[in-house]
TrEMBL record:
Annotated PROSITE patterns: PROKAR_LIPOPROTEIN
Organism for this UniProt entry: Paracoccus simplex
Lineage per the UniProt record: Bacteria, Pseudomonadati, Pseudomonadota, Alphaproteobacteria, Rhodobacterales
Signal peptide per UniProt: none
Region (Disordered): 187-216
Annotated protein name in UniProt: Membrane integrity-associated transporter subunit PqiC
Amino acid sequence: MRLILASVACLALLGACSNGEKTARYLIDPPAGGARVPDRLGTAELKDVSLPEYASGDELSWQSADGAVRSNTKQLWADNPQRAFTLALARSISDLSGATVIAEPWPLSEPPRRTLEVRVEKALAQADGLYRLTGRYFVGDSAAGGINQARSFDISVPLADTGPAAIARAQSQAIARLAGQIATLSGPGRSVRTSAAPQPRIDDIFSQPLPPLEGS
């Protein structure tokens, strides 16, 4: 009898653990809209956004009053955070400016004019009631005379409350603001002009047609 009761208790516990309704999943979904800005990027490939380890996991993270970064196994992102952040940022920049910004790998036969890299240093719902998104972004233009950008961003969005839904909304709003900053190439930093055209690659050299033989 004890064995039967123990088995029933184990099954009940497993059933409770596997109940998907007790796990909440949240989307990264920047709000649409906002004033349109001129296209300053043209075509650009966005590299996978680099996120801190605590922000790249499946669980939503926040900072408690003691300064620790905590998470809950029942409060998850609906998609891989790096993938969702990268795709959402590319879409937001494109929608805002009309530029063709696509997350890597580049799917078009015509290569992009520029590359875009974003390195996030902090992406956290802080104990002071603000969601903070900081880091640097880089725009590369390898053409001779092209303008390269190395700029930083520091974005703060007030949190409506400390719940996971509020954290997800604040992160989405922060991504939208970052998209606006990148689209306008703004923020502290500097511009660097490419001094010379890049050297041709070996495969580019051997892909060129051979010159005709003398006398032919």
